[in-house]
Amino acid sequence: MRTPRKPPGGRPTLNDVAALASVSAVTASRTLRHPDIVSPRLRARVEAAVRELAYVPNQLASALASSRTGRVAVIVPSLTNGVFDDYLRALHDAFVPASVEILVLSSNYLPGREEKAIATALGQYPEAVILAGIDQTRHARRLLREAAIPIVQTMEIAETPIDINIGLSHADAGYAAARHLFELGHRKVGHLMAPRDSRARKRAEGYARAAREFGVEPIVAAVDEPSSFAIGAKLFAEMMQRQPETTAIFCGNDNLALGALFECQRRGVDVPRDLSIMGYNDLEFSACAFPALSTIATPRYEMARRAAEIILEIVRGSGERPKTTQIDVGFRVVVRESTAKVRSA
Amino acid sequence: MRTPRKPPGGRPTLNDVAALASVSAVTASRTLRHPDIVSPRLRARVEAAVRELAYVPNQLASALASSRTGRVAVIVPSLTNGVFDDYLRALHDAFVPASVEILVLSSNYLPGREEKAIATALGQYPEAVILAGIDQTRHARRLLREAAIPIVQTMEIAETPIDINIGLSHADAGYAAARHLFELGHRKVGHLMAPRDSRARKRAEGYARAAREFGVEPIVAAVDEPSSFAIGAKLFAEMMQRQPETTAIFCGNDNLALGALFECQRRGVDVPRDLSIMGYNDLEFSACAFPALSTIATPRYEMARRAAEIILEIVRGSGERPKTTQIDVGFRVVVRESTAKVRSA
DNA sequence: TAGTGGTGTGAAAGCGCTGTCAATAACACT
DNA sequence: AGTGTTATTGACAGCGCTTTCACACCACTA
What we know:
The structure is a homodimer. Chain A has 13 helices and 12 strands. By secondary structure, chain A is of the alpha/beta class. Chains A and B meet through helix 4, helix 5, strand 2, helix 6 and helix 7 of A and helix 4, helix 5, strand 2, helix 6 and helix 7 of B. Chain A binds a DNA duplex through residues 2, 4-6, 13-15, 23-27, 29-30, 33, 37-39, 42, 57-67.
């Protein structure tokens, strides 16, 4: 005589619902899953039982039995970073109405953490995985490939995508940002960056390329910390000490840019008269800052929306993969008030 | 002769690992779960098989069998909002090392959505639920109670908590913010708010109470949209049109405050000489803005950290509930540069 | 040599649900 | 009444894993 493993009286199960409604478990299951194919009387009975017991289906068991989890895993480097606001909002907007759950994991910009996050995510048997970035470890790539589900790498364009890829070239965008400053006549153009983000490193490459092209020396201030407003101010201070004659800066992201802008205001440096500031990402505050930040608009909402669409298409639809497996969503140079022609001193 | 439901050749299972390592499934399971109680030789064999097959345990099946999901559900009103950055970071910091998974769901500040999110969360059989806010619907409260797991309501202090409650009084904090301005001699003190957030409404009550106490007329500009920098600018513009003689504003959050500050700069309104601005939350940018924003510091990291600690204590520890079930973490009035004595005009 | 206790491993059952298919009920028609 | 057709419901097995308990094996003691 073995004792039952769990004492009775836990949360109600489908069997409890079925018993209360005097039907079989299968029928109860069907009623919940396909309410429109059972008779109305039965449906009413089952639904009453559900309410009466405050029954919540065990999604674990359901997923295990049906091998459909209705879940999509999203792995982003950081939650605490305006960049992924629009991105996650787009995913919500697309997936919630389709009653697909979103499992968000964060990797803190560490490839090792990302690999772990990917393994964790795959353990949940998601029906697709959306990644921010393209720099997965070897093992992570293998795990993803063997999962045999749609994998979407976003944010960046990859040379060799794992599967589907929607993004833009951060090197090109960084180049365009720097070029914008050079074309305004600036020659002492600094770059502020937080290199922990691999995409920031690519933007820096673009900046370096532009500098080479215009025949000027790159000036970079970097710090290995998560980027923030305060870091922007700090890097700006550092740069002005090292290179006081700098007339323009390109910041690896808008947070750094705004931090730098604040520091300018604090020091009485007039932007853009004395110094031009170029941001990156076009976050919400960038348009209403004073002066409004010139920046690179990256279509983050768009990227995530399209990722979601493609996934829904594959998972819900015919199951066929779209032919286009790589989409370059591009970027836009947004010129506002914080950048201006260099003063012919 | 029934065909198998799933074609073979999907992802490897524990059985595959066991077969490759020439052991039974039980042993393989044990090896993965308690590596230190099996013989080293065996462990090496099993681990080799795991690597060879790129095996990822099916967390669903594991959770179902053990009725332990190792998962905590977190329901926040918004991901796209600096307020929950520290909060989620604290949860990560506490739970990830304890290998507890965090399931983050967002309710978009809609009680109906929150109820749905709660049901979804409970379907995952989390071992605890952390809620931001205290305004759950009746049915949601019932579901939570019947789940018989630790429920932590955070951010606000509740009259009648569901279970554990860690927060602060937003009415008192709003009162303190307004009072700070009144004590600086301001009498025309406006309040900018986005009332979709119920905590913002409570701060507004505190503001109204302070206004009553100081015998002045409350002036409120509100808009039923998610708060943002742009909305802050817009509400400020609206308020200055209606009440041009306003000398101070209390903003329901720092985003609104910064938006208002930008608008001041744009209009040439000197902060704090012409106008004092008080924010709320003490987000990262508030300290480095120029002028640095006076604000109310809410210990969001702390709240989440303590929530996590209590949960880990209950789940991992003795299983006993701590006696203290409600913690008021308080708040701090942070006076920086954006608020000053009213000019005796 | 039998007995003891510890260590390492495996067989069986079942977590809560769903897919499949068979069974029944309900109805129209010849 | 008998047959066929459709709408509705139920029995069974199994998803991949863990728990429990039994068993095999070994060294050691008496």
